[in-house]
Amino acid sequence: MSDKGKLAIYWAASCGGCExxxxxxxxxxxxxxxxxxxxxxxxxxxxKVRDVESWPDQYVDVCLFNGSVRTSEQEYMAKLxxxxxxxxxxxxxxxxxxxxxxxxxxxxxxxxxxxVYCESASTDNPGRVIPLPETQSNGHHLSLPVFYDTxxxxxxxxxxxxxxPGCPPEAPRIWDAVVAILEGKLPAAxxxxxxxxxxxxxxxxxxxxxxxKAFKRTWQVIPDADTCLLEQGLLCCGLATRAGCGARCxxxxxxxxxxxxxxxxxxxxxxxxxxxxxxxxxxxxxxxxDRIIHEGLPDPVGTFYRFSLANSLLRRAALVPDAERHxxxxxxxxxxx
Amino acid sequence: MQxxxxxxxxxxxxxxxxxxxxxxxxxxxxxxxSPNVRIVRLMCxxxxxxxFVLKALSLGADGVLIAGCHPGExxxxxxxxxxxxxxxxxxxxLRALGISERRVRLVWASAAEASQLAESINExxxxxxxxGPLHWxxxxxxxxxxxxxxxxxxLEHQETMEVRR
Lengths: 337, 165
Hints:
Number of helices of chain B: 5
CATH superfamily of the largest domain in chain A: NADH:ubiquinone oxidoreductase-like, 20kDa subunit
CATH architecture of chain B: 3-Layer(aba) Sandwich
Strand order of the largest sheet of chain B: 2-1-3-4
Shape of chain A: globular
Strand content of chain B: 5-15%
CATH class of the largest domain in chain A: Alpha Beta
Helix content of chain B: 40-55%
Structural class of chain A: alpha/beta
Shape of chain B: elongated
Order of helices and strands of chain A: EHHEHEEHEHHHEEEEHHHHHH
CATH topology of the largest domain in chain A: Rossmann fold
Largest interface: A-B, 64 and 61 residues
Largest sheet of chain B: 4 strands, parallel
Number of domains of chain B: 1
Number of strands of chain A: 9
Distance between the termini of chain A: 74 Å
Number of strands of chain B: 4
CATH topology of chain B: Rossmann fold
Order of helices and strands of chain B: EHEHEHEHH
Number of domains of chain A: 2
Strand content of chain A: 5-15%
CATH architecture of the largest domain in chain A: 3-Layer(aba) Sandwich
Radius of gyration of chain A: 23 Å
Helix content of chain A: 25-40%
Largest sheet of chain A: 5 strands, parallel
Structural class of chain B: alpha/beta
Oligomer: heterodimer
C-alpha cells in the first residue's frame, strides 16, 4: 500500500445519487484518486465487511457516509466505520437529515411491510409472507437485518465530524470539501461544510414585497421568469434552505424544495419555513388563513419536512396518533390545588 | 404515595403586555386555577417560533398554551396576526404528525381578563387530562431492542467470519 490517505465511501439507506455526484467531479476524480486510496466503496468495488472488520481502528483517514440508518445492518456499519475512521463525514441529505427515506417516519415498520409485501398492486402474495429477521432452513440458521420503525440520521446514530448537505451534494461543494480536507483547512469539528446563507442569496430572481392570497401548485401556473417564485404564489423553500446549489431549481422556474437542508443556525427546517410563510400570507381573518393553508398546503409534512423529518425536533409522526388513542376517562374528582 | 389523577404538563408562552399581566392579575385577585401550566414570559406572542412548541412537545410537554393580546391590540402593532398564521400552519402540521389540535392552543387575553385566562387554563388542563399524556419519548421504545439487534450482528460475524477483534 502507498502512503496516500485512505478514503472510504459507504452507503446505507440511500439511492446512490451521492456516488453519482462524486463521479460528477469529472476529471477531478483523478486528483481525488491521486490523493487517496479508495479502500471501500460498495457502489464500485467489492470490499467485504470482514475486510473492514479486520482493519485496525482509525485505519481510514476520511469516510464519506451517505444514506440514513433504518436497519440494524446499517447501524452496525455506521458504528463499525465510526471506529475505523479518523474523520467521519455525513455525506448528503440522507446522512445529515434523513431526506426522502426519512419520510417513512410518517408510518412504521408494520405498515411499510403491509404495503410492500401484501398490498401494492404489483404484489401477488396470497399467503401474506413477510420476511423475518431470523429463520431456519435445512438446518441452517439464516438472518436478515432488523427493519426499524424509525429512520435515523447518521448523527443520531454515531458521532459525526462534519456534514455535507445536499440531495445530492453538488460536485463543486464536494471538491471544496476535498480541498479543505487535503489542506487541513477544515472548520470546527461538528460543523457543516458549506455556505452560511440561504438559497435566495444565490437566486437571480427579483424580490419585492411578498403578499400571498393563495398558494399555487406548480402545475397550476407558468411563472414569469424574473420575479421571486414565492411572490407568484409558488411555495419556494429557498428562504429556509442553505445555499450551495446555485439556486438551480428556481432558475428553471421550479420552486426550491429544500434539499440543501436548513441554513446555519436553524434547528428545525419546517419551523423556520412556517415562520417565514406566516409573514407572507396576506390575511388577518382566521377563517381566511385556514382556507389559504388548507387549500394550498394539502401535505404539510411533505412540504415543510420533505428532506428533514428524521432530523426535525419531533423526528417522526406519533406511533400512536392522538386520534387513535384511547382517551383517559374523565376523573371523578379534579385534583385540588 | 402515587397520585391517581394524571397531571398534564403544559408549557405556556405568554406575552409580556397582556396575557402575562392577566396571569399576574389572576394571582393578585386570588383566582384559583390549575397549576399545570409552566409559564414562559415573552415580549410578544409573535416571538413564539414554532420550534419552541416542537421542542416543548419533544421534551415531554403534554400541551402548549400560547397567549397574546387580542388581534388589533398588539403592543407591536400586528405581530399577533403573525402568531395567528404561524399557529395555523403549526397545528396543520402537527395534526399530520398525529398530534391533536387540542394539545396546542392559542388564546387571546388582555391585561384585564384575568378570570377569562384562568378559565382557559382550567379548561385546557381538563381537556388534556382527558386526552392523556403525549409522552413523545415513547416513540423511541424500539431503541433498547435496536442495540440488541446490532450486537447480534457483531456476534454472528465473530462466529462465522472468525475476524479478530
